[in-house]
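Recall from the previous lesson that a structure prediction takes nothing but the amino acid sequence as input. Here we apply that procedure to Zinc iron ABC transporter, ATP-binding protein from Companilactobacillus mindensis DSM 14500. The sequence below is the only information supplied.
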Amino acid sequence: MIEAKNLTKRFGKQLVFENVNFKINDGDFISLIGPNGSGKTTLVKIMMGLEKETSGKLLIDKKQNIGYVPQFRNIDLDYPLNIEQFVRLNLKFTLSPAKRKQDNETIKRILEKTKLTQLKDRPLGLASGGEKQKAYLAQSLLNDPKILILDESTASLDVEVKMQLMDLVQELNEKYNLTVIFITHDYELTKKYTSRALFFKNKTLEEVHVSDVSEDMFEMGG
Ligand SMILES: Nc1ncnc2c1ncn2[C@@H]1O[C@H](COP(=O)(O)OP(=O)(O)OP(=O)(O)O)[C@@H](O)[C@H]1O
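The prediction returns the following tokens.
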């Protein structure tokens, strides 16, 4: 479980948000929504320990690893690694045969989970946008996370490809009880995949049932 208690963040004199309270249960699939600059990335950075809260508390089980999938960025055609090698990048390099065997099994399992087994030898630079994003997703699963943060990970992909990626994330959420926190500006995906939304409004966070999410929540000034 992740719980925020009166969480407040300032950068110098700038207040980003204050008195934020919420609970995210294991296995939840929630969206984190709100206009540009409202504090979504800052909040997940606090979850990942990359930023410190100004006051209040964020309670999160320190033993739970967090996976992070960034926004899609294209990769040059001549990028030197294939999909499997790219997924391996987050592993520590080791010469121990026992550890290497274990790593090979981990990679095999993750490629299967993310439906990349057939594509593992494809140079990443030649992969489609959706395949590249799946490779980032696979990389984020290396430390066996219990929480997955998708930071606008579907932005700039075609609609069909977005859905395929989200279907895969939904499968991981259901099969492995993975908690998913989806930062998004996408109204349709919020409605289709998430059950609750945490909505930044007036420098604080409101919990909204997905049936009450409206398009203007993605646009209003923060
Ligand atoms: N390291 C930093 N130093 C100073 N100000 C920062 C820093 N990081 C973020 N901010 C400011 O904090 C506010 C919230 O930024 P944040 O990136 O969390 O918003 P966001 O909701 O994720 O926006 P977007 O939807 O555009 O990605 C913004 O005004 C931003 O400029």
